[in-house]
Amino acid sequence: MITLDEARAMIAVARAKGREMGLNPLSVVVLDAGGHPLAFEREDGASPGRFEIARGKAYGAVMLGMPGSVQKARAEEQPFFMGAVNGAFGGRLVPVPGGVLVLQDGVVVGAVGVTGDTSDKDAAVAVAGIEAAGFEARA
Amino acid sequence: MITLDEARAMIAVARAKGREMGLNPLSVVVLDAGGHPLAFEREDGASPGRFEIARGKAYGAVMLGMPGSVQKARAEEQPFFMGAVNGAFGGRLVPVPGGVLVLQDGVVVGAVGVTGDTSDKDAAVAVAGIEAAGFEARA
Amino acid sequence: MITLDEARAMIAVARAKGREMGLNPLSVVVLDAGGHPLAFEREDGASPGRFEIARGKAYGAVMLGMPGSVQKARAEEQPFFMGAVNGAFGGRLVPVPGGVLVLQDGVVVGAVGVTGDTSDKDAAVAVAGIEAAGFEARA
Amino acid sequence: MITLDEARAMIAVARAKGREMGLNPLSVVVLDAGGHPLAFEREDGASPGRFEIARGKAYGAVMLGMPGSVQKARAEEQPFFMGAVNGAFGGRLVPVPGGVLVLQDGVVVGAVGVTGDTSDKDAAVAVAGIEAAGFEARA
Questions:
Q1: Under 8 Å CB-to-CB from D2, ≥6 apart: which residues?
Q2: CA of D101: which chain A residue's CA is closest?
Q3: Structural domain span for residue A20
């Protein structure tokens, strides 16, 4: 289980890492094991739709048990499959890097979704936040 | 405009006020002037659907320019009207106290939505957070 | 058929009438005979969700061939009926005064939807706009 | 912030530019910084679905902070990404040129969406309207 304090720590570190790397304004969401929001922050200057994108990345990771990079690979291999799966979730998944699973003792307890810079950099800051809070990340 | 730091200050004060008042675990969202999330926190022990409720309260306030108490009064007077208006927004509004407008120089710049305890107490902590951040609240 | 120039004239007169009557900031939409937008204006100071409400009023009028006042009476008499009808249109109808049919030689050619003040005043300015443009209004 | 008078000026100039260039009947929407309609006009002879297309172009620009040309390039590079992002917004985005960001002092304050002719010409008239109203355009 991710507590709110842990979720906030993940966001704080992810954002600090983004500043350190000189990234664009980031938006970061932490979802619980059921795909529901625990905490979210959108940095000044980010566009207004960033919550939906951050959540879409993390939501797909939790609901499918697949981090964004795996979803992306699958989408490239079998576009119709990921499209259909997405439809089954009302189109809410955003299957690209930046949706990172959060594990504790090998069990998925949630996911972090980051958007704002390139997908790979989004994923890197998510991993930094998750690990700093004492969890295992799967990007 | 509400900055992320101001949004986080609103949430911090609203949550502190909730603890001071001995309220149930709270969930607090801050939306911008277009109804889009800036920041959200869900306290430990709150049920997983709280983001949607907090957002629904704040979203209706922003989109209609009416705080939750006014929406509720209107819903009691003309249930079919508020039901229909809600439908026009895809059913996303939650027209009860706890959706509080944030004003700056008399202009609506966003809204805070709180859920977890009774609607009136939810509204009270939202007001506390908004005022502590230097804005005017309309509950 | 309503031309764009006629639609703009309806909006201009409705807005002027609103100022003359000292009403709140208004939002006015003109829909064609198929319920699709021809023109829309939202006055400064109106809340951001006003397009959906204005359209909902006019859309119900066109799609059911019933002005807002008739829809409202029906909703009060038979709430389940109007609720179900609204569901059949994806919840997009707002069945209150302010949705006014536009007729030409006795045939419905569109509708005007106004929102911002009380429903009856909204309807009054819609009628003023429609008649000034040389059409018959049914409110 | 874009006032209604400024929005109407953008539409007037965009339409005049379209006539000057001999374009097909145009439909032009102006959205605020939250993606909500301020003003819309559909020229005589345009097909009835044009509001949704104009809004979809402008809505994606605002919500993602990316003008239509950037969205299109991204959609060509990573079709599954833009498809998924679109799903996260309920399928409302139309990621092609003609969705043009409106900036004031370097900050996005809204977007103009134009549809009716080729996407590049749609974008050109949007830019003309935005600049004539004293704003910066990003197409």
A1: D10, D30, D32, D38, D102, D109, D110, D133, D135
A2: A47
A3: 4-138
Q: To the nearest whole percent, how much of chain A has pLDDT over 90?
A: 94
CA A76 to chain centre: 19
Kindly determine whether residue A92 and residue D87, on different chains, have CB atoms separated by under 8 Å.
Answer: yes
Domain count, chain C: 1
Residue D23 is encoded by which pair of tokens? 């374009």
Summarize pLDDT for D74-132 with one digit per residue, the tens: 999 888 888 899 999 999 999 999 999 999 999 999 999 999 999 999 999 999 999 99
Bridge partners, residue D103, by sequence: D108, D136
Residue D22: CB atoms within 10 A of its CB come to 8
Q: Is D127:D119 a contact under the CB 8 Å cutoff?
A: no
Tens-digit pLDDT profile for residues D44-58: 999 999 999 999 999
pLDDT of residue A111: 98
Q: Percent of chain C, pLDDT > 90?
A: 94
**Going by C-beta distance under 8 Å and a sequence separation of 6 or more, which residues neighbour residue B73?**
none
Q: Which of A5, A4, A9, A1 is nearest to A131 (CA)?
A: A9
Backbone angles phi, psi at A138, to 5 degrees: -130, 105
Chain D CB contacts of C11 below 8 Å: none
pLDDT, position B78: 84
- Residue-wise pLDDT tens digits, A106-125: 999 999 999 999 999 999 99
A120 touching D, CB under 8 A? no
Closest CA to C54 of C14, C91, C99: C99
Structure token digits, residue C35: 């319920």
Distance CA B42, CA A1 (A): 13
> What is the maximum span of chain D, computed from C-alpha positions, in angstroms?
39
Is the Cβ–Cβ distance between C24 and C117 less than 8 Å? yes
Chain B closest-CA separation from residue D69 CA (Å): 24
pLDDT of residue C102: 98
Q: Which of B10, B50, B1, B60 is nearest to B30 (CA)?
A: B10
Structure tokens at B50: 């709280």
B40 touches chain A (CB under 8 A): yes
Chains A and C touch (3+ CB pairs under 8 A): no
Q: What is the CATH number of the domain that holds C88?
A: 3.30.450.150
